[in-house]
Amino acid sequence: MAGRKAVPEVIWNRPERTGRGPRPSYSRADIAAAAVRIADAQGLDAVSMRHVAAELGCGTMSLYNYVPRKEDLYELMLDAVGAEHNFEDPSGDWRADMLRNAHQTRVIMHRHPWVPRLMAGVYGFSPNTLRYLEHCLACLEPLDLPYSTKMEMVALLNGVVTTYTANELATAERTRSMPWSEEEENAVRIAYLSSQVATGAYPRLAEAFMEDSGPIDLEAMFERALGRVLDGFDPKR
Amino acid sequence: MAGRKAVPEVIWNRPERTGRGPRPSYSRADIAAAAVRIADAQGLDAVSMRHVAAELGCGTMSLYNYVPRKEDLYELMLDAVGAEHNFEDPSGDWRADMLRNAHQTRVIMHRHPWVPRLMAGVYGFSPNTLRYLEHCLACLEPLDLPYSTKMEMVALLNGVVTTYTANELATAERTRSMPWSEEEENAVRIAYLSSQVATGAYPRLAEAFMEDSGPIDLEAMFERALGRVLDGFDPKR
DNA sequence: AGCGCACTACGTACACTGTACGTAACTAGG
DNA sequence: CCTAGTTACGTACAGTGTACGTAGTGCGCT
């Protein structure tokens, strides 16, 4: 009977209700929503067990009835935003469908700028992740490739979406808790960068900075990156 | 005179020594090395200001003379591992050179499994990051593309390397602080996954799992992903 | 019907975190 | 020389995740 808890657990395996005992006052969705609300409004660092419990209107330790570890709260949050995906029936054009999925993911991440940071630390497939994977495979039906390759493609594409969007949102999320603005932060970093480049230690980097390439269009870069990755899988090319 | 500190700062702009006052007992390299040592041995979560100070052999608050915020300590750590890159003169074959760089990055991350997690939270270019970028541009010299495109390529490639390696190291780093083993953790996750797939809610995913694709070779997947990304930039194809 | 057990709820407590602030010693520039 | 800017570091505070104990609740079983 000793040490029964020393075993890993996936939160999605826990039944929301067992039958025995008083009925839970909150659902998993309630909890996830509360945590997401806090993260959206005050940043990811404000998501503490105490805050979430307060937002729900219950005692701190009551939360642990629903969520055995804080990490699981994170999983709940990611699953909740995963539910914001709005799947349409595959059109038959797998390329267009996958681009649509990628763009939708990016939009969701812009709505919840803390998502990329959470993704780096949480591994595992929540129900909505599985739904997303299934949908991607449906979109890729017309493509004649083994499933293993399709999975690799989805993984690669998601990785690109996450890293790109993470970069876009980097300073935005960072400066939440800082006493200065995003513009000030960026200004300082750019000043440091050009001072370094000006030392002459990085000649090619210097050339790259000189090259007048007009204003940086992050969205266009994103688009190009997606295109290139998809190209890599297109048997027609 | 009020609020003079309310300005963002890049640690690399701070001189290591100003001349005035007693000479510092430690160098930035000492501090970074101490932090890296702790992270390697006890995991990233063990890297606290107190631990690093103890490892150095000084009082906790003394650290703040060198490192204004903990985040800057992270930047020092990333820069330190960046120094482990062993650059060779470009061979003229940009594809081979870039593959070499990517593999080297992966090896370094395997040596320091906490690197991917740090990368997700720290933004900014340390001296060694600049050195790395410069080297990549040197390798790409034979390629006739605008610098902007080359930079996009380096960014995309690094993103892929990071996400892939992060996935490889995910459970390894996670289970450091857990009372169970990596194998137990993976077993539970796989069990959950197949139970979900078995419900029939994800038919295509089920097929994908059925498809007998032999043992999963992560390194080969990594290789293929790199190849595809590079293909996307190769004007010869 | 009613016993008992598994569950909910939650207050208290602990070890630990980052870091603001104050004080003492030290050293180079004016 | 002197003084302003450093280094060094102890104390203190607000905040964190969560182990543990206790009280109440209601389903399932006998």
TrEMBL record, chains A, B:
HTH tetR-type domain location: 25-85
Keywords for the protein's UniProt record, in alphabetical order: DNA-binding, Transcription, Transcription regulation
Region listing for Disordered, in residue ranges: 1-26
Alphabetical list of InterPro entries matching this protein: Homeodomain-like_sf (IPR009057), HTH-type_TetR-like_transc_reg (IPR050109), HTH_TetR (IPR001647), Repressor_TetR_C (IPR004111), Tet_transcr_reg_TetR-rel_C_sf (IPR036271)
Ranges of the DNA-binding region feature: 48-67
A Pfam family of this chain: TetR_N
Descriptive protein name: TetR/AcrR family transcriptional regulator C-terminal domain-containing protein
Organism field: Streptomyces vastus
